[in-house]
Amino acid sequence: MEHAKKYLAEAIGTFVLVTFGCGTACAVGCASDAGSGYLLTALAFGLVIVAMAYSIGNISGCHINPAVSLAMLIRKQLSGKDFIGYVVSQLIGAALGCVVLGVVFGFDCGFGANQIQEGWTNGTVAGALLVELVLTFVFVLAIIGVTSKVENSAVSGLVIGLTLTLVHILGIALTGTSVNPARSLMPAIFAGGTALSQVWIFIVAPLAGGALAAVAYGALESAKKE
């Protein structure tokens, strides 16, 4: 029953992330020259994390992101069984969020899917992989760092939410900012086209970035003990 509650929490959290984060992108647009739309989309993703961290964080840890779950698996803070359960739940939540967006905005709304942005003059597959790896590395490193001390619990949700906003502010104009395979895969499936053909970028790079963050933080912890 305890595991089921965790999986349900992860599904709900990812549902909210896609509904409000991707939904804001659908509603206001996120082109880098759109000003307020760009910032509103970045803030929407960050604020969802703040809201979910303080609501489901005590149940599942509020990963709502396979890259975060992979990092916690590497750090042995999540079992292999729970890793699978978390990722499946995250994908289900993301899919349900896309259904809601389709009903609200129409099933041709784009679903806030990630892809290499047309306005990025130097945009390449290699560049997108690098961007997503770096953005995810920073995001997951912040999560591991702020949650590694119990005394940070009162502010951890705020720090993580602000960090997600930060990486979106840079990344939206480049890749739309994924840092989350579940948030990218389901919108891409619903949107199809270029988003679907490029979605592997937004699965591989965030997972690599999350794993790298886990390894890097482990090295920093080891160095501190010496």
Distance between the termini: 41 Å
Q: Could you tell me the mean pLDDT?
A: 94
H and E order: HHHHHHHHHH
Stretches where pLDDT is under 50 for at least 5 consecutive residues are none
Number of helices: 10
**Major sheet attributes:** none
Coarse shape = globular
Strands, count = 0
Radius of gyration: 16 Å
Structural class determined from secondary elements: mainly alpha
Description:
The protein is mainly α and 226 residues long. Helix content is 76%, strand content 0%. The chain is built from ten helices and no strands. It has helices spanning 2-28, 36-53, 57-60, 66-74, 80-105, 125-147, 153-175, 181-191, 193-198, 201-225. The model has no long low-confidence stretch (mean pLDDT 94).
Write the layout of secondary structure elements.
Elements: H1 2-28, H2 36-53, H3 57-60, H4 66-74, H5 80-105, H6 125-147, H7 153-175, H8 181-191, H9 193-198, H10 201-225
Helix pairs in contact: 1-2, 1-5, 2-7, 4-5, 4-6, 4-10, 5-8, 6-7, 6-10, 8-10
Short description:
The chain is an all-alpha fold.
Keywords:
mainly alpha, 226 residues
